Amino acid sequence: MSEEQMQILQMVANGKITAAEANQLLQAIARADAKAEAQESFEGDFEWPEMPEMPKIPPFPAMPNLPNLPKMPFPPPSPRRGTGRSGRENRLKSYGNAMKAAGFDFSDRELRSMQHHVTVEFAQALRDAGVTDLNGRELTEMAIHGVRPRFIREARELGLDLNVRELVEMHIHGISIRFIRKAKELGLDNLNARELVEMGIHNVDLNLMSTFKAIGMHVNAREMVDLSIHSVTPSLVQAINGLGLTNLTVR
Question: Is residue 10 assigned to a domain?
Answer without folding.
Answer: yes
